[in-house]
Each structure stands twice: as C-alpha cells, then as structure tokens.
Amino acid sequence: MSKYWSSMVKRTEPYVPGEQVEQLDIVKLNTNENPYPPSPKVKDAISVEMERSLQLYPSPTADELRQTIGNIYGLTADEVFVGNGSDEVLAFSFMAFFEPGKVIRFPSVSYSFYPVYSKLFAITYEEVALNDDFTLRVGEYFQSEGGVILPNPNAPTSLYAKLDSIELIVKNNPDQVVIIDEAYIDFASESAVKLIQKYDNLLVIQTTSKSRSLAGLRVGYAMGNRSLIEALVRIKDSFNSYTLDRLALAGAKAAFEDEVYFKESTGKIIATREKTMGILKGLGFNVLPSQANFVFVTHATVAAETLYLQLKEEGILVRHFNKPFIENYLRITIGTEEQMARLVEKLKKLV
Ligand SMILES: Cc1ncc(COP(=O)(O)O)c(C=O)c1O
Hints:
It is built from eleven helices and 13 strands. By secondary structure, it is α/β, with parallel strands linked by helices. α2 (40-52) packs antiparallel against α8 (246-257) and α3 packs parallel to α8 (246-257). The protein is globular. The N and C termini lie far apart (44 Å). The mean pLDDT is 96. It binds pyridoxal-5'-phosphate (PLP). Pyridoxal-5'-phosphate (PLP) binds at residues 32, 85-87, 111, 151, 155, 181, 183, 207, 209, 215, 220. Belongs to the class-II pyridoxal-phosphate-dependent aminotransferase family. Histidinol-phosphate aminotransferase subfamily. Residues 25-347 form the Aminotransferase class I/classII large domain. Keywords: Amino-acid biosynthesis, Aminotransferase, Histidine biosynthesis, Pyridoxal phosphate, Transferase. It catalyses: L-histidinol phosphate + 2-oxoglutarate = 3-(imidazol-4-yl)-2-oxopropyl phosphate + L-glutamate.
C-alpha cells in the first residue's frame, strides 16, 4: 500500500488466474483452455494480416467481425459488441449497467472475477446461495435492485441451467440488466441468444477462448439489444478505441467462418468429457453433470487438496479453489484423449 494509490487501487482485490506454465511436458488441465489448436484458417488469416498493414491502427468499430458474429447468431452488427477477451467485455458491462449503491446478485459459487469487478467499480453485491446440489435458486434472482450476472454453464460447477429458468430471471428483472456469461455454452445445449429479440434487458456474453481455441488471441463478445450495445461502445470509446488489434480481428473472423472445424473440435471435447465422467465415477468420484469443457469432482475418501498437490507433483495441473463449500472439489479441464488417459492413470494410483 502506498500513499500515492488512489482509493480505487486501495479497494481492489485482483483476480488470481490459474497457473500458466511454459513447460511442454506438463498436462495443463487448470484454466479451461481448449486442448486443440484453432482452425488452420486462423493462422492463414493472421499471416495475411501481418503482411498487410500493421503500421496502421485497426478498425475502432470492428464492423467486419461484428457482422460475421451477427450472421452466425441471426443478429445485426449493432446487436454485437467485441472486446479484448470476455473479461474485458464483462468489466465494461459492470461499468455500463451496474450502479454503485444498487445491489447486484450473482451465485455464491461462481466466476471469481465478479466480486473483483464489483469492488473495483464500488458496486455492492449479494451472493445468492446455491442449492445443495449446486443448482441455481432461480426465484432468488427475481426483482433484484441493481441487476444480475450469472454464468451458464456455471463455473466452476459446470452445471447448465435450462433456458426457461434463465428466461424467468430475465423476465422478473424488467428494470435491470441481466447478464448471462456464456463462456462455455458451446459445450452445452441452448444459448440465451434466442431470447434477445424478446427482452431488451438481456445481455449475453461469449468468448472465443474456449470453444474456438483462441484464449491466446483475447476476443470476447456481447450480444443484446442495440441500446445495450451502444452503452458498451460508449464505455469502450471512453477508455481505448482499439481494444482489438488487427491480428485478433482477422484471426477471430476466420475462426467464426470455419464452422466445420468448430463443430468437430467441440464434438471431440464433449465425447471425451462424457467418457472421462464415466471413468471418474468408477474411481469413486462424485462428478457433477457437466455441460462445459471441464468437470467438477470430489472424491469419497481422498481430499481434493491432497489430490491437487499429488497430481501437480506428477506433472498434471488441475484447479483447486480454497473456498467455502468447494474446498473439497477439483475443477478439471477436458484435454485430449491422451491427456485424460494420463490423468486417469495417475488418479488410479492416488485414490
Ligand atoms: C465464466 C467465465 N467467464 C469469462 C471467462 C473469461 O474468458 P476470456 O476473458 O478468456 O474470454 C472465463 C474464463 O475462464 C470464465 O470461466
């Protein structure tokens, strides 16, 4: 702490991301990245862009990328906002739609960035408890004072809430914005995007970091009524006109255009997830019914922290959260078939 720090810096409690390692022999199952590379078309598009005009600023409005995303989801470009990873889009959304002094709500077990943004922007929040099976208490999000944010599927629980539950929450907050953070939706059933035409208070946020294998490129996006999108643009343009660089714009567009590759790689991850869930259950784990690219598990006899540390020693990184209610759980990202086989082989010795 320094006397030169602003009150904003003093009140922050920064988010701590999962460990990033450069060692190639580590099996990295701790930050929900995609184990497969992006579509080869991404690399081609980035190479072309590199040869073109890096001396010039990128498009501040990212029209082409917004149009490409809009085409996929049946929206117009002005119903789409793009930003530097969905974390940035989330941060802008807190600024654009949540008000200091008005209490927002999110689940008590949820994405750990929400309390961080709340503190940063001086927004008060209420953490809504989950049921014992980690499902949402839908009615407790109704008539919020300041708005609602929740991930669907939830992280780190991996559980998906059906669209009619999401719709009830949106419908019962008619004067507030409800943000659905769909970072993992492509591994689940239905997106809330289809509700956008019906509700002008719904903002859906997605990312290219998971299902499109572009965590390293940092491209996230929000979809909603054009007046919500306009609010996000106003925040962005008061902060940094060029949040996405030329390579990110070109690479993300190519990823969205390769629907075949996208379907194939998400399909592979879902198949590996289903197989892994079965094997882990056989090893005595309680496995939550995942609709994400990770599983959330607890073992009948061996403590999660012990397993986390022992796996780490064996060169396998998974995520353990030292937090109430979930301290005996591990979040394990779904990797390739080979990576999961290595995990299972080690677990068989440890449990
Ligand atoms: C629920 C949730 N939302 C958002 C993000 C951020 O994704 P990104 O900033 O890479 O788009 C993550 C990343 O793990 C996440 O788990």
